[in-house]
Automatic annotation (TrEMBL):
It comes from Gracilibacillus thailandensis. It comes from the Bacteria. This is Uncharacterized protein. Keywords: Membrane, Transmembrane, Transmembrane helix. The chain crosses the membrane at residues 12-28, 40-60, 67-92, 104-127.
Length: 132
């Protein structure tokens, strides 16, 4: 019963919006911007900026469960990135690439992004505790 209350208390609209914001990373790569500027620099910078946005929004929104919220944001981003890859890789390269081409990679993508979200959530939780 308590599990349902936790899930019901999460702001799913915010989770979707923040997950969608992170799609800037694959779009930077697909558009060639990452290659033009420098792949490691663009990827790392985008990741840092997205993480800061996630943390700031969750803290300013005074989310009750920032750790859980941002963990789900990371998972949501992973799902969206897998879908985007499945749609655009055949269009851009002529063949399916990415996690859908290797189903074992799906689990890796989801776990990696859940960890990213959890780290951001832990930072947001720490900021909330400092500001109380």
């Amino acid at each position: 019963m308590k599990k349902q209350n936790v899930q019901a208390s999460l702001n799913w609209k915010l989770i979707f919006i923040l997950s969608s914001i992170a799609l800037i990373r694959p779009f930077l790569s697909m558009s060639g911007i990452s290659e033009a500027i420098g792949k490691p620099f663009v990827s790392i910078t985008a990741t840092i900026l997205i993480t800061l946005i996630w943390i700031i929004v969750v803290v300013l929104q005074n989310e009750a469960q920032p750790l859980l919220t941002l963990t789900f944001v990371g998972i949501g981003y992973g799902i969206l990135a897998i879908i985007i890859s499945g749609i655009f890789s055949p269009i851009l390269t002529g063949q399916l690439q990415g996690p859908l081409a290797n189903p074992f990679a799906i689990v890796s993508v989801l776990i990696t992004n859940a960890i990213w979200g959890a780290i951001a959530g832990a930072i947001a939780t720490a900021f909330r505790k400092i500001n109380k």
